[in-house]
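Checklist before submission:
- one chain only
- standard amino acids only
- sequence pasted in full

Submission:
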Amino acid sequence: MDTPKPIGYWLMHLHNLIEEQFERTLSGLSVSRRQWQLLNTLSRGSRTSGELAEALAPFWSGAAEDPQAVLADLADRGWTRVDGDAIGLSETGRELHAELAARVERARAALLGDLTPEQYHQTVRSLATMAANVEAALGNPARTASSVS
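Returned file contents:
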C-alpha cells in the first residue's frame, strides 16, 4: 500500500515545478524569474528601491540573485528608468513586460488546469491559514495573519 505523500513533499515538488516552468516560459528572452518579478512589480507603477525590496522580500529570501544587481542589470538593458528616487519601466521595459505577461498568463493557465476559481482560492486560503498557524507557533503571528481571509 502506498503511503500518501505529506504536504511538505507536495509544496516542494510544486515549487520546483513552478521554477522550471518559469525558466521555460521566460527562455528565449534572456529574463530570469527574479527579473520578471521586478518588471511585473514596476508595471504597476514606479517604486523606490526600498518599496521594491519590501514588495519582493517574500520571493527573494534565499534567492541566489542580489536584488540590487538585478535592478542594475535591468537598467543596463534599458528596461528601467530612474526619476528622482523612483524606479519605473522604460518604454522598452513596458513592451517587454507585455510580451512576458502574455507568456506568464499562459503558464498560469496551464498550472491551474481545470481548477475552478473557488478551488484555487480555497487552496490559497488553506495554505495561508497553515502559514499563519506555524508563524503563531513560532511566535511571529504578524507576518501572515493579515493575509489570511
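Reviewer check: The radius of gyration is 18 Å.
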